[in-house]
């Protein structure tokens, strides 16, 4: 029943084989989706090469640079979607950034520029990409973003990223309300802690993972593939009645009081 054949899916946020977006791209590919991949360009082209090699087995029909801090890169990404695909069905927003010094210590010491950077890249980008995707989702669509429990609870060191995730989850609701009449669904997956490049910047991430392994009902944390399976489900017709939601894929940790 989970068949994404004929669906065009744009996946952002693959940096390496630990990225949650990589787990998602693999599961969308398995379900039959046609993939487009964006990468964060750097001056020496290292990321382009690395991501291109990684995603090659998934045969993406689109591979484009997209730094969400630059409007013209976002514009050219969606122009490429328009030119090569004509329509978009699935958008995976799987990116975030905050300065390392803002992911440890006292939240009250967050600088104005650090706050702006975190919210611009991690939160505004969902609004920006959804706005660009909207006219291309002519047959309806599914937009999925990644969030974390730190958006609704105070988690040590998560600090400004918690504020960014709270804004992200609110953005999911506002976007779902706006885009619903066009049959475009917008949801967030709240993943349990996973070791990745981004999460390694959060102070004490390994302690967080060990804590989840001890306390979560399933006595473990989750994998990129499990998050990918949920993204494939949310992208499919099986989830046709679900929008504006935050779905926890965290081995049950969120329900625990102690
Ligand atoms: N790893 C976890 O424990 C965890 C838990 C819950 C939610 N998340 C969320 O999952 C998402 C993916 O993170 P991840 O853990 O897979 O780490 P990751 O480092 O593999 O992915 C983060 C991605 O963001 C991209 N990025 C950063 N700045 C960018 C910019 N300006 N423009 C475009 N792309 C940019 C990076 O290139 C990278 O691909 C993030 O939103 C993160 O907050 C992660």
From TrEMBL:
<dbReference type="GO" id="GO:0004318">
    <property type="term" value="F:enoyl-[acyl-carrier-protein] reductase (NADH) activity"/>
</dbReference>
<feature type="binding site">
    <location>
        <position position="95"/>
    </location>
    <ligand>
        <name>NAD(+)</name>
    </ligand>
</feature>
<comment type="similarity">
    <text>Belongs to the short-chain dehydrogenases/reductases (SDR) family. FabI subfamily.</text>
</comment>
<keyword id="KW-0276">Fatty acid metabolism</keyword>
<feature type="binding site">
    <location>
        <begin position="194"/>
        <end position="198"/>
    </location>
    <ligand>
        <name>NAD(+)</name>
    </ligand>
</feature>
<feature type="binding site">
    <location>
        <position position="98"/>
    </location>
    <ligand>
        <name>substrate</name>
    </ligand>
</feature>
<feature type="binding site">
    <location>
        <begin position="19"/>
        <end position="20"/>
    </location>
    <ligand>
        <name>NAD(+)</name>
    </ligand>
</feature>
<keyword id="KW-0443">Lipid metabolism</keyword>
<feature type="binding site">
    <location>
        <position position="13"/>
    </location>
    <ligand>
        <name>NAD(+)</name>
    </ligand>
</feature>
<feature type="binding site">
    <location>
        <position position="165"/>
    </location>
    <ligand>
        <name>NAD(+)</name>
    </ligand>
</feature>
<feature type="active site" description="Proton acceptor">
    <location>
        <position position="148"/>
    </location>
</feature>
<dbReference type="InterPro" id="IPR002347">
    <property type="entry name" value="SDR_fam"/>
</dbReference>
<keyword id="KW-0560">Oxidoreductase</keyword>
<dbReference type="Pfam" id="PF13561">
    <property type="entry name" value="adh_short_C2"/>
</dbReference>
<dbReference type="GO" id="GO:0006633">
    <property type="term" value="P:fatty acid biosynthetic process"/>
</dbReference>
<comment type="pathway">
    <text>Lipid metabolism; fatty acid biosynthesis.</text>
</comment>
<keyword id="KW-0520">NAD</keyword>
<feature type="active site" description="Proton acceptor">
    <location>
        <position position="158"/>
    </location>
</feature>
<keyword id="KW-0275">Fatty acid biosynthesis</keyword>
<dbReference type="InterPro" id="IPR036291">
    <property type="entry name" value="NAD(P)-bd_dom_sf"/>
</dbReference>
<dbReference type="InterPro" id="IPR014358">
    <property type="entry name" value="Enoyl-ACP_Rdtase_NADH"/>
</dbReference>
<protein>
    <recommendedName>
        <fullName>Enoyl-[acyl-carrier-protein] reductase [NADH]</fullName>
        <ecNumber>1.3.1.9</ecNumber>
    </recommendedName>
</protein>
<keyword id="KW-0444">Lipid biosynthesis</keyword>
